[in-house]
Please model this.
Amino acid sequence: MGYAVPIEPLDPKAYASNQEVRWCPGCGDYAILKAVQRTLAEVGARRENTVFISGIGCAARFPYYVSTYGFHGIHGRAPAIATGVKLANPNLDVWVVSGDGDALSIGGNHLLHVLRRNVDLQILLFNNEIYGLTKGQYSPTSRVGTVSPSTPSGSVESPVSASAFALGAGARFVARSVDTLQSHLFGVLLRAHENRGASLVEIFQNCIVYNKGVFDEFTARDIAPDAQVHVEHGKPLIFGKENDKGLRLNTKTLRLEVARLGEDGVTEADILVHDETNHALANMLAALQPPAFPVALGVLYCDPAPTYETQLAERVAAAEARAEERGDKGDLNALLRSGHTWEVD
Amino acid sequence: MGYAVPIEPLDPKAYASNQEVRWCPGCGDYAILKAVQRTLAEVGARRENTVFISGIGCAARFPYYVSTYGFHGIHGRAPAIATGVKLANPNLDVWVVSGDGDALSIGGNHLLHVLRRNVDLQILLFNNEIYGLTKGQYSPTSRVGTVSPSTPSGSVESPVSASAFALGAGARFVARSVDTLQSHLFGVLLRAHENRGASLVEIFQNCIVYNKGVFDEFTARDIAPDAQVHVEHGKPLIFGKENDKGLRLNTKTLRLEVARLGEDGVTEADILVHDETNHALANMLAALQPPAFPVALGVLYCDPAPTYETQLAERVAAAEARAEERGDKGDLNALLRSGHTWEVD
Amino acid sequence: MEGTAAAERARPPRQTLESAVVRFAGDSGDGMQLTGNRFARATALARNDLATFPDFPAEIRAPAGTTYGVSAYQINFGARVIKTAGDEVDALVAMNPAALKVNLADLRPGGLVIVDSGAFTEKNLRKAGYEADPLEDASLAAYRVMKVDMSQHTLDTLTDSGLSKKEALRCKNMWALGLVYWMFDRKRQSSIDWLNEKFAADPHVAAGTTAALNAGHAFGETAEIFTNVAAYEVPPAHIEPGLYRSVNGTEATAWGLVAGASFAGLRLVFCSYPITPASATLHALAELKDYGVTTFQAEDEIAAVCAAIGASYAGAIGVTSSSGPGMSLKTEGIDLAISTELPLVVVNAQRSGPSTGMPTKTEQADLFQAVFGRHGDSPLAVLAARSPSDCFETAIEAVRLATKYMTPVILLSDSYIANASEPWALPNVDTLPRFPVEFYKDPRDYHPFLRDAETLARAWAIPGTPGLEHRVGGLEKSADTGHISYDPANHQRMTDLRANKILGIANDIPEQTIELGPARGRLAVVGWGSTYGPISRAVSNLQAEFQAEYQAEDGDVSHIHLRHIWPLPRNLEELLGRFERILVPEMNSGQLLTLLRNQFLLPAEGLHKVTGRPFTIAEIETAIRSRLES
Amino acid sequence: MEGTAAAERARPPRQTLESAVVRFAGDSGDGMQLTGNRFARATALARNDLATFPDFPAEIRAPAGTTYGVSAYQINFGARVIKTAGDEVDALVAMNPAALKVNLADLRPGGLVIVDSGAFTEKNLRKAGYEADPLEDASLAAYRVMKVDMSQHTLDTLTDSGLSKKEALRCKNMWALGLVYWMFDRKRQSSIDWLNEKFAADPHVAAGTTAALNAGHAFGETAEIFTNVAAYEVPPAHIEPGLYRSVNGTEATAWGLVAGASFAGLRLVFCSYPITPASATLHALAELKDYGVTTFQAEDEIAAVCAAIGASYAGAIGVTSSSGPGMSLKTEGIDLAISTELPLVVVNAQRSGPSTGMPTKTEQADLFQAVFGRHGDSPLAVLAARSPSDCFETAIEAVRLATKYMTPVILLSDSYIANASEPWALPNVDTLPRFPVEFYKDPRDYHPFLRDAETLARAWAIPGTPGLEHRVGGLEKSADTGHISYDPANHQRMTDLRANKILGIANDIPEQTIELGPARGRLAVVGWGSTYGPISRAVSNLQAEFQAEYQAEDGDVSHIHLRHIWPLPRNLEELLGRFERILVPEMNSGQLLTLLRNQFLLPAEGLHKVTGRPFTIAEIETAIRSRLES
Ligand SMILES: Cc1ncc(C[n+]2csc(CCOP(=O)(O)OP(=O)(O)O)c2C)c(N)n1
Ligand SMILES: Cc1ncc(C[n+]2csc(CCOP(=O)(O)OP(=O)(O)O)c2C)c(N)n1
Ligand code: SF4
Ligand code: SF4
Ligand SMILES: [Mg+2]
Ligand SMILES: [Mg+2]
Model:
């Protein structure tokens, strides 16, 4: 892994900064911070080689709470700042932390391009379907009808799906988890870190103050098993309290449908097996909506490709090597004298 | 159709402005201009109620050449300007004209949101896979390896697909055509105009000066029939000179494949029928790449939904009506005196 | 009975004050804003003049008991005209240790601090970062301290109220309010009515809060007898008769925009993107659909300004608003409006910068950007509101200028004005001048850059008008045809036209007047925006003082306050020329100062304060003194 | 033999000129830029001083024969020092009617116009918008006209060249070049060698172009005998000995940035988004990977500036560049660099505004934006390059200041400087001063806003450094800990620190010198940027004239030219104070003027030109005269 050798796994606490964490009590961000610190420990991240970069928002306060290098940027621009960091030093292990407004409202364009370029970053999108820091306006991921200070009679726009957007943008790694699913989230973060390239992780996060319980319809303890399908490469898409439900493709309509194992002759053989390299399947999974369908969590898509900054760095290195051979590496006089010159004497 | 009554079909020439057209001789834009003027004539567009709005670029010069109202905006922002126009007057028939750089580089975020909001616009994206006006730098749609002034050793980034992006953004209408396919383009433009909501039309356009012939691999006369599949709702996805090829779904791999009718027992029954309301299918079609696959042209996706500006306008109208009833419509003194007041005498 | 009688007799007369500053401070959860608002209302009913300022924590909801979770509400009220929320606090109500810690510094020496001793627990003291309990050591020696276990008193009052302990404790802010009502001799009824209305759905709470309020008041009455705490009286001020309301800058701006649009006969299309403190205007206007207002929360500030421009192009009045970083993002869009000569109003609720700065704090450091901050020669009009209620008129003026001159207008307010409240003598809107827009309709040799000979405004023809189809854009256009033109002479001509059109506005705005003081003299204090309050109070204080001291010929110092920042009032140069010295206090490092020095080559001096807080009256008095003495 | 002898005898001596301005004009397809470049090179070899300016059409590839498709290349060369591309054209080569139409206005009365009469067809005349053939009517009466059917001559020359008619016609620019070479007595060899090299792959073309060149030259020699067209001689200028090259502002900027990065010991990460005219710098640097340059074409200007900031944060020198609207978009990002105190160089190749303006035309109207155009009090350093070659040194200086003071630096160039070329005496780079950056490495009570006591620059520690992990951002931070701080006094302190850090640069830059003229006197002409050429020529012309006329004590007028726009040189006030009047010519409506008036309260006067074109020497001479006479 391009980076400096990992160190012996540290205690997750070693990745906590000396700053007092200032999210609202009960905010989902705390759980995510915990999972990230655990991940850093697990991969033995070197604090000095790790950088957290964010935009603006509650989520974007994240870097202050991690004991690595950090850059709290401007609203929506974290992917651009992170790209610059990787251009200057491809060996740094860079994480981007963003909110749904930061990443998908003002920052949508940079997210598109950082994903398309496949810059090697872990991009964590804390989706609470609201603008937290500015006190609760609806966001591009808010459901239709969201009542907020800027939409007192409910929002009318249909929301964008972070995962569907990322797939459309050409992302090579798209995953999903939930703030409260600690171990699931931990697993997803490990996969994201392992992937070389832009790894987008959409994390459903509860804003207890402005959008409390908005994900209950699929995260509430009792219904979760039936409202979530945890996808794993090579495993059938089975879910439900009794693992008695599965997703299958209706080949007539080309749409997914929920089948009950055992019922009218449905066997595991009829159930789709998750292939994380299949873009079309990833799109279908990302589109599943409760209550009719379970929400797909886990690595929806992973199909690695060369990263932008390494390819660029290789070209520069190659050019420098050629210059080395020519013996005029960094020779500024040669640069100025390239092309036509004439002597006046 | 929300708009003022159409007039008797005019001669397409009636939609030409008095401005001299200043694209390079042989530029694909000429053909698109022709097809649009023909469309305006066909739908009997009222010049005074029609507005063309663009950003900056060669494509964006378009409004100067149409005899309707026009706004040549700033780079990438046409969708935002157009949204404002529709908010102020939903009855105007508004077209947005943009290039691949304008719409997908600097303007990607506005395109995302105008599509998601489903503002009633015809959005024409002239994709020549290059920055024309600024003299030939590669664009976000340029193929890997594109040699340009800013990438003398070839570009490394993988391009974004306008159609895939639009589908990921939640567009309700996504279509594709080619500058040189006059009647196909005309048909697609009619469909786009007919659709209420944001209709994205990606038009492959030949920049004869900076990117000549990039689309030859599927537009060259001789190979076109085998390199293009013209999709039509309800019709099987058949193509080829002899109409002997079709697209079918491999239900094991969940990927499309090209089947030869007649060969090893393949019949029309095995070929997929296009369903323009199927998002997953649209995604698969948008992803098809020559030479292995034909390029899908036509209306890839059309699944109408209410438009943003009309829903907003209805709410305002309803509120005004209530005020009317209350008898304090527009009563500013009442506004200032709402809430707690006290008399000092 | 006798007892009371005795008490009655024992009761000393209330001490009369000309004015007082009270600050309620507590945890975000303690409802201090609400408490302050009730007190402000009762005070208005008591016929005092007043000004209030809320101080929210930067964090959304900090953990209870932390210093950065403290919320405060300050009110300055008096028997005289009140111009600011007050320099120093006379009475501080601190509901917990953190509130005491954060706010004590603003309490004047000898001031009164009323604390809920029940909240001074180990845990809370630690959270507030106190090693020792300040109520026990000498920390408060310099102040008069009133320790009351408000929590316990409230619980006692509400034992059988049917409220849980948690609910009951939530009423302690009303208990505190009751006590302060007693202290300043305020009537409780308006608050009691309000509580009953607000909690109509929940009779227990309605009764509980009311009971707490009364209990706090009763406590004061009895406490008086056995404590040294005096009760005060603040007699009514002389206030112009009329109908009043309390208004903050956000509301006044929203209403001014609605009024301006209506006076122009246009629909208001307000396009913005949330940012502190500007967002509040979006929220206010989103509630005004019944006035035909369309609000659009765009994906970012660039889309917001561009949508507003599109709306104006289509015949509405497009308005956008922002603060800090958001304003910087609108730069390119504003330039497009300048080049296409479309009306546009941009409201900038200034906050502390640069960059993200201190989002919840106030500043005036965007004047440079408003006047100079675009590429190319790109003139536009700039206005500034001086107080919460002044936002109403200024917003109307912004719409008038934008539509009459076909130009963007930047309206500068700031975080202080946006959040502060003051009583406002409501104007009769029917008497205000209208300025209906007439769209251009005549196709005869029309082109989009035809100009009004007098205003130089271009003809405004909108889509939907037959025969006037035309195109506009950001490329330079021929002054004669409106078509794209690269002609050198034409570019000079258009550059001059754009500049002169804006300069011409100077003939359409009032001459600059003097707020206060002589029409010529030793020192003019020139301000703009929210420095109005402290400057005008400081100047009037010194006026009085000097006149008293040495019959100073009407007082030696004058106050001039600008609403029109660009173009400047036509008589300003002459006016300033009449003073020996000019002092320009600004909450920035000298921006209006630069404009005046450059325009008039006057040796004006600046007084700069960049702390995120308004000037105190004292700071300005000191500066004036030093100028008059030196 | 005798004939030639006779001719030899008949040949009049060449008329000697001190300098001459030649413009080659034709259709975009006619290869005028290439032709001009060849002539410039031959002229340099002839030891003339020179300056050139290309004038491309705005359209990418306009239809052949149209006026907006005309491309031109102007060269001013002489036996004296040349400072501009020339006010008026002495000899115009027009390859078609459109070229004549567009360029005739710049030909001086009595000037020579050489036309390819073969191209004056019905069709071409119509396309150019000529009713009648100007070669036939009186249109050209005021000029000396040389009608030659170059097309036909070229075709005749190349009959059996093996080139098609179309190919052969493409050689007519070389025919024209040959003729002009003869006219100004230039050596052909350098061009012949070049042609053979360029078309090595295609011998027919190599031979054909060479033949055309020679034929044109031969035509001149013979024509001389039977026409009135004189041949000229422009003697060598006195030029400092040394190794020279021709350079334009774009190349010099790119090389200066590479040199600056190397002197600082940092990698150069250049992040930009294409825009005219700035793009050319991106193109130039993209070719320099062997110098370790990383170039990044971002998705927009905001991403470009943010990526540059990220690169600097990670320890490279991040540079971004743009023009016009693109600069406005960078505003918010630049403010972030100011707040995080990271080095950043922003190159602004100014163009005509506002908004999209005239993208291919020049202007100097972004000075206000550079100095004042951000929200909040946001000081940074601003530099301006005066000429193409000066971009090299100025770019180095920008990198030096950015890295030494941890600040963004805006480098102002413009469309004229970016495209114009001049001979450049190549410096020996090894002799230029280095300024290696030392990253901070000491963990002992480190925090990111530790400052150098002298420069006030903050400690630059980069990711990868163990023990110095820290966070930066756009929120205000404590001057003592670097942590987020809302403390009022701290904000004032940080605001002052940011301002003083930049003002301190004044002690680290050279004192302002006088370019030309007395050190005190009646009039100082103060310029910045690309007005250098015309001002300095105008002043030296008048110096000479006045001294001649009335032995004016060394000439009455001086030229002062600024490189450092902000902070201004420390001695500038004193320097300007020595002159009775100050004239500030700018290609804007008075921006440096505003800065000087405000800073020094000097009654400086402006000379404004906003036409998209540089000042002519005459315009400045006239302005100076009027000031000296009045
Ligand atoms: C340029 C700019 N525009 C607007 C803002 C105000 N702002 C700060 S955070 C934010 C959105 C926060 O929402 P999100 O990104 O979802 O993060 P969350 O607070 O919900 O975690 C906005 C609009 C800003 N700081 N800068
Ligand atoms: C803010 C801004 N940035 C950059 C530019 C320069 N620019 C003009 S058009 C363009 C891209 C043109 O490419 P495209 O959108 O594909 O249109 P095309 O010319 O290819 O039709 C650019 C970068 C600009 N005008 N404004
Ligand atoms: S506002 Fe919401 S997202 Fe922000 S910290 Fe509080 S709970 Fe978390
Ligand atoms: S540059 Fe390309 S896109 Fe632009 S006008 Fe010319 S051919 Fe068309
Ligand atoms: Mg959010
Ligand atoms: Mg393009």
In short: The longest strand of chain D covers residues 107-116. The pocket of thiamine diphosphate (ligand 2) is lined by residues B 56-59, 75, 99-102, 126, 128, 130-134, 139; D 273-275, 301, 325-326, 329, 356 (CB under 6 Å). Chain D has 22 helices and 22 strands.
